[in-house]
Design goal:
Blueprint: H1 3-28, H2 30-38, E1 46-50, E2 55-57, E3 60-70, E4 73-86, E5 89-100, H3 119-125, E6 129-139, E7 146-152, E8 156-163, E9 166-173, E10 177-185, E11 194-201, E12 212-219, E13 228-235, E14 238-245, E15 253-260, E16 263-273, E17 280-289, E18 299-310, E19 313-325, E20 332-342, E21 346-359, E22 362-367, E23 372-377, E24 383-391, E25 396-398, E26 401-414, E27 418-432, E28 435-448, E29 453-464, E30 467-477, E31 479-482, E32 485-488, E33 491-501, E34 518-527, E35 529-532, E36 537-538, E37 541-551, E38 554-563, E39 566-575, E40 579-590, E41 610-620, E42 624-633
Parallel strand pairs: 5-6
Antiparallel strand pairs: 1-3, 2-3, 3-4, 4-5, 6-7, 7-8, 8-9, 9-10, 10-11, 11-12, 12-13, 13-14, 14-15, 15-16, 16-17, 17-18, 18-19, 19-20, 20-21, 21-22, 21-23, 22-25, 23-24, 24-26, 25-26, 26-27, 27-28, 28-29, 29-30, 30-33, 31-32, 32-35, 33-34, 34-37, 35-36, 37-38, 38-39, 39-40, 40-41, 41-42
Amino acid sequence: MRKGPKRLIQILLAAVVAILLLLVLLWKTLPQWLPSLAGHWLAQGTALSLSSAPVWSDGQLRLPGLRYLAQDCVLADAQDIALDKAQKGWNLSLGSLSVDTACLSQYPVSKNSNSALSLPDIQKQLPVGQLHIARLSITPWQQYAGSLLIDNSGQTQALRYQGDALSFDAALDNQRQLTISTLSLTPPGSDEPIQLAGKLTLPAALDTLPESGELHGQMHTSAVPHPLNVSMSWQNQRGELRLVEQGETEPLLSLPWQLGNKQIQISDGQWRWPYAQQPLSGGVNLTLNNWSDNLNQTTLSGRLNVLTQGHNGKANAVLTMGPGRVGLLDSSIAFQLTGQANLAQVSLSASFPATLTGSVLNPEISLHSGALLRAWGKPTATLSIQDARWPLAGVKVSAGGVSGPLQAIIRGQDSYWGNIDLHLNGKSQSFWPDHGQWAFNYWGKGNLPPLSGRWDVAGKGSWNDNQLTLTQLSAGFDRLHYGLVNVDAPRLTLTTPLRWMRPIPERYASTQPPTTLNFEGAIKLVAQKVSLENGGYLPPAALTLAMKGDSPMNITLNGQLAALPIGPIRLNGRWDGERLRGQAWWPKQDLTAFQTLLTPDLNVKLRGGSFYAQSAFSAARGQGFIAGGHWVVK
């Protein structure tokens, strides 16, 4: 009997120890068994993944990392999670939370839409306390990353978000009234934020738009002299968005809209832009269908036009869209831009059959067969464009650049430089000026009245990021005439490729290595014969020049001119974009080398002597060529 209680105590102690060991084992193996257990409550095809077991430290439950996967795609990744209990409720903090919306395409669609919680249900189930995320980042909108704080008192939920491009301060009460105290949003490509404030009555169902509300605010842009007042109000499924310049009554943008059965429709919208070289205006009609069913099932159709008036009178261009699918992740919208725009000095006509695909926030536009842009007119007092054509079939345009064939045909006339007929053909890859790659060929012909000659040109080149290179150049004239000189069949070629290292645009400065501005290359001009009106001539001549500087508008030149047995004449100079200045040195040589320069009518035979000279020269449009110096003949 004495051993009974002792034995019972030993059994109980052993059981307690076993339970404690089991609890420790379960706690340490939590990352292995908890995801499987949680899978019974998660959507099919989704799973939780823990980086390690949680730990208890300083009154907090800490978890280093937690991921939520849809199939094999990481939909959400939370790091540095901490949970503790305070007097006013629970406090949950996350060091970071990254959400990848591309994984939504792999997220299973619920077959029972009635099981979704309403907004009041969610508010009731939220525990009293705070949620703080030090850095919230949602792909592909990483530029709007910031910190989020949600403070739930039980009666209201206060929301505060702070980021470089997006910040707001708002409160939601139990009557579904959302009060936005401040909201600041900087749109992509802009340095000026949009400031908004207002009140919204949120719907009970989260898959519908707010029932009523009013937003008002202000935005600044360098394109408009004064700030712009933004307002949007709606009631009973009807509303209007207006954009008005401060101090004006007529809006720059007016978009009346209404809600139907899974439909948003903008009818008889109007826009105007009085800040261009000539006023522009037009209308907008858009319809979104099935917008609440699925992010990738919404369809878009619409029409937008622009009215212009210029040197050819009035003109109209129309953009028709859809119907096509539009979504945050995947879109496919066919559209066509046709019509004409008459600017003050130039007219443009376009026919662009195209398709927009990809994310609606970062789309790609593919231009189809028949895509063509044309221009004609007189852009300057001296230049007339008879016909400029840009065939664009096969071209793809995205935020990353232009890819595909790039072609151009330009025919025009300049009152000073004469007629031009140029052709360009090349292939690009993610190309914008000074970003991406573009390899091209060029050829053309024309005439040059100031020098009484007809010319032709051909060559190859490339534009890789901020380096523009001409690898081949062959330009020639049938003849040149200036003053008392006639040049027969001169031709210009490259002896060293022309390379121009251009400034890196600010928007690409972080993605391209820093470079030093540089322009360099070498050319050679060869003429079969240089004849003088007095009957003299130069033998076949060759001019070589090496160029170096920071741009084609600021270079130094070094070279020589030789017409054996005359020369060579050393040359150097500088071109500043408007005027060429330089010097020439003619070394001492036998005077008999100049026999061909003398007219036969003189009947003079050079038998001996010497000659040397030095000269300074200047050349510019309107001035011509001027030279002066000294020469010595013995």
